[in-house]
Amino acid sequence: MKKIILLFLFLGLSLTSCDDEFLDPTKPTEEDVFSSRSGLIGAANGLQSKWSVGRQSPVYTIITGSGFTTNEFRLLNAGNADEAELLAGGVSVSSKNALINNLWSQSLVINAEAQKVLDKIDIITVPAEKASVFVHASIYKALAIGTLVQFFEQVPLETMKNATFSSRAEVIAATIATLKSTEPYLATANGFSGLVGNIKYKNTVNALLARFYLMAGDNDNALLYANLVDLTSKSTFLYDAISNNPIANVAILTPNNYQPIDRTFGLPAALAPTSSDGRVNFYITPGSNPTTGAGFFDSNSKLIPLYLPGEIMLIKAEAYARKNQLPEAILELNKVLTKTAAADAFGVGANLLPYTGTVNQTSILTEIYRNRCIELYMSGLKLEDSKRFNRPNTERNRDWYPYPDSERFNNPNTPADPAN
């Protein structure tokens, strides 16, 4: 992370979907950043820093927001007013909430900056470099818009004054199209010296395509791309002593923010993990009482995965179940249930017996949801999962977040806030 060149940070001052910019004369101009090979590489590296580092980053706001909204966390200090609002949920969540504002503004900035890199990609002439930067920027563009639509009913896809808002279906389609646009480059997108090297581009694109096709309800394509993912390959956000893991730094390692709610992972009794489930002691410090977080979040330098092998297995299980191909769904589900820590690229293992429940679509989908909540704990995906599986409203305190004031006051096309 020390090598990341944050040439584009001045652009972060434009926090809404409009095109107003306030330039600092001591920093490089937009023309400087996007008119050279080194500038484009620096901007591409900066996308990862902006996405993953700091309390304002989407990594922090996604995991924190989803976690409080779906009962994954307990708050240690009500003085953390923004987290307290998300924990209370309902009408308590205001359009002034800083976490929601950061999730919105940072994601819009990343979407805009990624698109500028893509628009100028022909400046880079070495094929492997061009391919790697194109795929790198596309991944962050897809993450930005694809994440926003999990938390907000509608999202602006363009960065312009008075931008119009697009529906969930349109945003997911745009996310998929962004990822699909990388396919001509994947064979040569192997990274190079100077570009952050912790993302395996082909596997990450295929994993994200599987994720977003599943959200779109396209089970056939979700299966197609999930089957292309090498489950031994790892893609991560990098952290070190300077660029800290934001969940560890801001929450888990501090005495006054939040921790895992308990060993139930915030699930109702019928879905809570058993005491023999190895994933409990992976995500929660063994013997801690009250519970403290572990897993990917108990050190400032712990790496956070972009996706887990278990997510890919569960995508396949869910897609088969929704197609009513129940034997195939159970086969994939059992891969997660019986997986040991030693057999998993990140050490996440349930080490349980195979599924012995009722063999019908409803029961199997419920078991898949249960395992997504446990296997992917603190991933930021639970709010989306809770809605997609039509879980009771009592298991989440909101469906959608209100639009930030920074958007509403600058864009007359901002939709009405959702009731819940």
Write up this protein.
The chain has 420 residues and is mostly helical. The chain has a domain at 9-15 and 31-309: Serine Threonine Protein Phosphatase 5, Tetratricopeptide repeat. It has helices at residues 30-33, 37-52, 58-69, 81-88, 98-119, 127-151, 168-180, 201-216, 219-226, 246-252, 278-283, 309-322, 326-337, 361-375, 382-388, 405-408; strands at 73-75, 236-237, 258-260, 304-305. The protein has a two-stranded antiparallel sheet with strand order 1-3. The protein has a two-stranded antiparallel sheet with strand order 2-4. It starts with 29 loop residues before the first helix and ends in a 12-residue tail after the last helix. The model is unreliable at 1-16 and 18-23 (pLDDT under 50). Keywords: Signal. Residues 389-399 have a biased composition (Basic and acidic residues). It comes from Flavobacterium rhamnosiphilum. Residues 389-420 are annotated as: Disordered.
Descriptive labels:
420 residues; mainly alpha; Serine Threonine Protein Phosphatase 5, Tetratricopeptide repeat; two-stranded antiparallel sheet; two-stranded antiparallel ribbon; 16 helices; 2% strand; disordered N terminus
